[in-house]
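S1.2 Input.
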Amino acid sequence: FTSLMYLAHERRSVVSPYFVPDESLLAAITSAALRGVEVDLYVSEQADQFMVDRAQSSYYHALLEAGVRILRYPAPQVLHTKCFIVDDEIAVMGSSNLDMRSFGLNYEISLLSYGGDIVGQLKEVVADYAARSTVLDYQTWNSRSIARRYTESVMRLTSALQ
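S1.3 Output.
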């Protein structure tokens, strides 16, 4: 996954209900954004698991600082699609979340597609998510409470166990 993230030249869309990246995945996404690639991250406004929700959101500050656009799918609905699209040409979809548990512990499967109908169909699905989602801005994110920030930090520390 990480090596495919580095391939983007223009645009990358990432959709995951559980986004708890390791350092290499976070670096791939933020470095792409910093070099001018448009990166959109689609997540649920509120994940269906408290600990994952807080661990996931602990990464938003670094992502927003790098220029990643975070789109949150409205609660109470939970976004469950797991895919990413690179430069409108390559798509990966499957059962793997973008977290270390999926990469290292679970038996997950993903399909890589270059061009063809699958990429176009996934782009349509992601466009529908974009129409329904709200963009998280840096100012709003920084106004969250101290208690919220604390729980994010604690859950990030325990994210390998979740």
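S1.4 Remarks. Helices lie at 2-6, 23-34, 50-57, 60-66, 100-104, 116-132, 138-142, 146-157.
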